[in-house]
Design brief:
Layout (H helix, E strand, L loop, with lengths): L4 H14 L14 H22 L5 H8 L3 H4 L1 H24 L1 H19 L5 H29 L2 H32 L2 H22 L13 H13 L3 H26 L8 H6 L4 H18 L1 H18 L5 H29 L4 H20 L2 H33 L3
Length: 417
């Protein structure tokens, strides 16, 4: 076999991509080379975003020990990131409507990677929280815009599947961030874990910059406060969008609460698992990389609301399984919970673009604002339930949010949206 053949193949693929003509009004269709290029770019962006955001989650016990803070306080290392990300979405979404999608996403991802590298050097708890907040603020530029880019550029027949692949990148990113940081922290330190994640995200950002196709259907919108307010009111008057915003809040609040505190539970008796083993449990995220594109495809056959309700029910079944004491049953519950979450999120997020009548970037921002606000507002208070009632309290807290999510989903179904 010629050792140069892989290089030749890569060169030929690059030439095919460069020959792609970005003129005209055609949407990107599934199976084409440009679809592969766009999918790979957004997959890498989603992977890096979730790796940067959630790399600290398995490190929370180590951060508690390093800085002498409680589990509730340690969860702030994630909550400040998701909270600032939520606030940033209110800015970066409308900003992308005015200046363009790709430039906002590339700048945001590069800044987030740099902030993470600096965070690895922080010697004070407050300094670390400030850098984590800046990381979340920067990541809002990716989270707000990626779904909008897909809804504008991909052919409607392939949109649900493409959105599912993007969400699967999120799930693998969340797994990679947790897995790598857990393993590295156990054999080295939390600083090394954060630094490696930052380097990984920097490489993903450069790949994204290089291969994401330019926008072909982007039309600049006004950044005038009056226009933003009119669009904001339009979104909230829509019969379906506010319900989807509520779904994002409840689903993400439930998801992040479980993974914030499952490490504390499994590192305590009778399991007494190591930091590395707890990090390895992040492989359950692979179920999300399978379920999210699958859910997108199922919506074409069964409709969005039924798939959303089924996925939320799977989450509920998963969290109830974690009440058992056998480690394999707990792992099965985590897998079901994760698969259900990413499927539900893929359906709800993919519903925003077709539902919004205009200013889709702002509509996506409002959904993700609610989504990450759920992470920030639910994740830290969940620690109160953990400290006072143990895992039974966490399960009750998550179950209440999922029951509310089911009620919202039933209302969506009744409206035949």
């Amino acid at each position: 076999m010629n050792l140069l053949s892989p290089l030749v193949a890569l060169k030929n693929l690059g030439q095919h991509w460069r020959r792609y003509d970005v003129s005209g009004d055609e949407y990107i269709k599934r199976g084409t080379r440009v679809w592969l290029r766009a999918t790979l770019a957004l997959f890498s962006a989603g992977l890096a975003t979730f790796a940067l955001l959630y790399c600290v989650q398995p490190l929370m016990p180590a951060l508690s020990e390093q800085f002498g803070v409680s589990p509730t306080a340690s969860s702030l290392s994630l909550s400040v990131s998701t909270g600032l990300l939520a606030l940033g979405l209110l800015i970066t979404g409308p900003l992308s409507d005015a200046v363009g999608r790709k430039s906002v996403m590339v700048t945001a991802l590069l800044m987030a990677a740099v902030f993470t590298l600096i965070a690895a050097t922080m010697s004070s708890w407050h300094g670390l929280l400030i850098l984590r907040a800046l990381t979340g603020l920067a990541l809002s530029g990716v989270a707000a815009v990626a779904m909008t880019w897909l809804s504008e550029e991909v052919h409607p027949s392939a949109l649900a599947f493409s959105m599912g692949l993007y969400i699967s990148g999120n799930s693998i990113g969340g797994m990679s961030g947790r897995l790598l940081s857990g393993l590295i922290a156990d054999f080295s330190s939390w600083r090394a874990a954060v630094a490696v994640t930052g380097c990984f995200a920097l490489a993903a950002a450069l790949l994204f910059w290089k291969i994401l196709p330019p926008s072909r259907h982007f039309r600049p919108a006004s950044l005038k406060p009056r226009s933003l307010l009119l669009n904001f009111r339009l979104h909230w008057r829509d019969p379906g969008l506010p319900l989807l915003f509520a779904e994002g809040f409840l689903l993400m609040g439930a998801f992040v609460t479980l993974f914030n505190y499952i490490g504390y539970r499994l590192m305590a008796p009778p399991w007494s698992l190591s930091q590395a083993i707890v990090g390895l449990l992040s492989v359950v995220y692979l179920t999300g990389s399978w379920s999210s594109p699958r859910a997108g495809a199922l919506t074409v056959r069964y409709g969005r609301a039924p798939v959303l309700l089924f996925s939320t029910t799977v989450m509920l079944a998963g969290v109830l399984l974690t009440l058992f004491s056998h480690i394999w049953v707990i792992l099965a519950g985590m897998m079901l919970f994760t698969a259900g979450f990413f499927a539900a999120h893929a359906v709800a997020s993919g519903w925003i673009g077709p539902r919004a009548r205009r200013a889709r970037g702002q509509a996506s921002s409002l959904y993700l604002f609610s989504y990450y606000l759920g992470s920030s507002l639910a994740g830290t208070p969940g620690g109160v339930f953990w400290m006072h009632f143990g895992w039974n309290g966490i399960t009750l807290f998550i179950t209440a949010m999922l029951v509310m999510a089911l009620l919202v989903g039933l209302r969506l179904r009744r409206k035949y949206l």
